[in-house]
Amino acid sequence: MSRVTLGSDAYHTAIGDKRLTLCQPWAGIGSKRRSGRCVLISGEAMIATARKTAHRVAARRRRPARARQAAKRTFYSHRLRIRLASKKETEIFKWFLACLLFGKPIQTDIAERAYRELVAARLTSPDAILRAGWDNLVRLLDRAHYVRYDFSTATKLLEVSRELKRRYGTLTNLLAAAKTPSELSARLQEIKHIGPVTARIFLREVRPIWFRRRASP
User: Fold this and answer.
1) pTM (two decimals)
2) CB of 103 closer than 8 Å to CB of 197
3) Are strands 21-24 and 37-42 parallel, antiparallel or unpaired?
4) DSSP state, 39?
5) What pLDDT, in 10s, does the model give residues 82-141?
6) Dihedral, CA atoms, 188, 118, 76, 157, nearest 10 degrees?
7) 141: which residues sit within 8 A by CB, 6+ positions away?
């Protein structure tokens, strides 16, 4: 049995688990108490146990951070009750529509109200946007107090819907055509009125669903 000196304080620090306490910090031989029993263990066993426990503790501490990151990624689509995971065209277009509204330098609550007004009017497809026309779009945006950009946004929604139909037909086809997130961003920005901010917002929540199993660019 090898002789390794490991004091009780060092043992607690290495283990990271207060349920394990050192009975005797002898050089070369230590003993630990678990559930009221003391068992002699070698210095190597103590160190190996400490390392394994430290890894488990570190893993437990990392899990909440990953959960917070995941929640942050899906916050807006969940808040708007958009089910992107379904991969249905209507749900994808709802998120796309929200991104077009959030892409303007305007308050978040106003952009959300504008989105809800458009969805309540069933403008959840390029065809529906085009049928609504400029006057109706302006009226709905004004009702949501999206007044600063009402004219320009109504024009943008019509032109983006028209260009999306001409190029791809549907957002599902656009997503299928893009092999990587960077390619999707580039294809989006080829459409007039869509810049880096709108593309980034769209990709933030689409990427984990559509490109989860694909290689990163």
Assistant:
1) 0.65
2) yes
3) unpaired
4) E
5) 999 999 999 999 999 999 999 888 999 999 999 999 999 999 999 999 999 999 999 999
6) 20
7) 114, 117, 147, 149, 150, 153, 154
